[in-house]
Amino acid sequence: MSDQEAAGRRLAVLISGRGSNLQAIIDAIAAGSLGATIAVVVSNRADAQGLARARAAGIKARVVDHRDYDSREAFDAALVEQLRARHVDLVSLAGFMRLLGPVMIRAFPNAILNIHPSLLPAFPGLEAQRQALEHGVKVSGATVHLVTPELDAGPIVLQAAVPVREDDTVDTLAARILVQEHRIYPQAIGDVLGGGWSVEGRRFVRAATAEPTSASRLPVGS
Ligand code: GRF
Which one of 97, 138, 149, 186 has the largest count of C-beta atoms within 10 Å of its C-beta? Predict the structure, then answer.
């Protein structure tokens, strides 16, 4: 795919809060290192800080409040309607705190990405950094994966590891992991939009000719 074609690929970013990963994606596009356009940012919370980041970057931002819907199916259908209206190719969950059901997953098969602050399959679910500290692991990190119906269990696109230090708190570990999240999420989005991959069983497999991104070659970060 040419750079021009890739830049035409339309991304949606779904958020619930701070939006620092959204900002990393906005910055990567602005820097020319991610060939894509953010067609829309959708938050399920009107007070999400990330909405202001989107608007500051001139990106259309929408609120779809889950409390306005009486079922997950109805909420998902409202999301699908917003995303289809914007002709979205790929959906990135970036701190989006709602579980997606079959309505969304079927509408975007193998086209929804999530970022999770642990080395999956370790520590899925909430408070992954706290889970890692309490378990006593010496290495943790971040994972970008395709979204499937099972929580935090879809095919892994990219991971980055960070050391866990003796004196870490949840906040210091989360901050170290976040640096890696901001690095690998735009790279993983670029990988997925670039094509040349398939899903085999539960593995995300790049075609033999596809070069791994620099992120997947890096040693444990500091
Ligand atoms: C990140 O740690 C991400 O891995 C997790 O939620 C957090 C969102 O942070 N899913 P932000 O809203 O992108 O700043």
Answer: 186
Closest alpha carbon to 143 in 135, 155, 127: 155
* pTM of this structure: 0.92
Nearest atom (ligand 1) to Cα of 23: 13
pLDDT tens track for 11-50: 999 999 999 999 999 999 999 999 999 999 999 999 999 9
Tell how far the Cα of 100 is from the centroid of ligand 1, in angstroms: 16
Tell me the best of 38, 41, 43, 115 to mutate to test the pocket of ligand 1, counting ligand atoms within 8 Å of each CB and taking the most: 115
The angle, 0 to 180 degrees and rounded to 10, between the axes of the packed helices 170-194 and 20-30 is 40
pLDDT digit string, tens, across residues 151-197? 999 999 999 999 999 999 999 999 999 999 999 999 999 999 999 99
